[in-house]
Amino acid sequence: MRTATIERKTGETQILLTLNLDGTGKCDVKNPIGFFDHMLKSFCKHGLFDLTGELKGDLEVDQHHLIEDTGIVLGQCFAKALGNCAGIYRTGCFIYPMDESLLQAAVDFGGRPFLCCNAQLTGIPLVSIGQDGKEASFQTDCFEDFWQGFVNGAQCNLHLDTIRGRSDHHKMEGLFKASARAIRNAVEIDPRRNGAIPSTKGTIGN
């Protein structure tokens, strides 16, 4: 099984995640940020990844540390589970329609981290009601922070584009789903490759 467990402990966050690349889409992560929890569940469901663990962080400061560090740890899980990337397709892309929004993601697990994020978000926080009945919010500027952390951890390049759209909720959710499908395509085993490393150099990232 292609699985990985990564733990990260700093003065700002405590994160533990276990990833199964060949799962069924189950997400059982203790996550204190409601909208972010919704995004991770959508990512797992559409990528058919299984993810378990717990996220803790200094939310009294803001959401940035926890969201970015979660991206780093999730990316590291992908890198560890993929190993030398032997036998995988390596690249993937997907266009995801979500109501008025149309979103696109393209990824390459080529060993070189780079993020191009053209989400076209307003920057206005999404407001909701927390489990304690009090007003909660999601800092939309942390969306790009998550994916920057992910590409750094996974050593991949990722291009995210909002082709069109109005709702920030739809843009972010659609990009998480498009990314899940693109990443799923990239990390699946290519039966024609016969276990070879998908690079003319014979190695990934060098």
What topology does this entry show?
Elements: E1 3-9, E2 13-20, E3 27-30, H1 34-47, E4 50-57, H2 64-82, E5 91-98, E6 101-108, E7 114-118, E8 126-129, E9 135-138, H3 142-154, E10 157-164, H4 168-187
Parallel strand pairs: 3-4, 7-10
Antiparallel strand pairs: 1-2, 2-4, 5-6, 6-10, 8-9
Helix pairs in contact: 1-4, 2-3
| Beta-strand residue percentage | 25-35%
Return the average pLDDT rounded to an integer. Answer: 95
Radius of gyration: 17 Å
Order of helices and strands: EEEHEHEEEEEHEH
The spatial strand order of the largest sheet comes to 1-2-4-3
Q: Which oligomeric form is depicted?
A: single chain
Distance between the termini: 26 Å
| Structural class designation | alpha+beta
Tally of DSSP β-strands: 10
Descriptive report:
There is one protein chain. Helix 1 packs parallel to helix 4 and helix 2 runs parallel beside helix 3. The protein contains four helices and ten strands; from the N terminus they run βββαβαβββββαβα. The mean pLDDT is 95. The strands form three sheets. Strands 1-2-4-3 form a four-stranded mixed sheet, covered by helices on one side. Strands 5-6-10-7 form a four-stranded mixed sheet. Strands 8-9 form a two-stranded antiparallel ribbon. The chain has helices at residues 34-47, 64-82, 142-154, 168-187, and strands at residues 3-9, 13-20, 27-30, 50-57, 91-98, 101-108, 114-118, 126-129, 135-138, 157-164. Helix 1 links the parallel strand 3 and strand 4 (50-57). It has 206 residues and is α+β, with helices and mostly antiparallel strands.
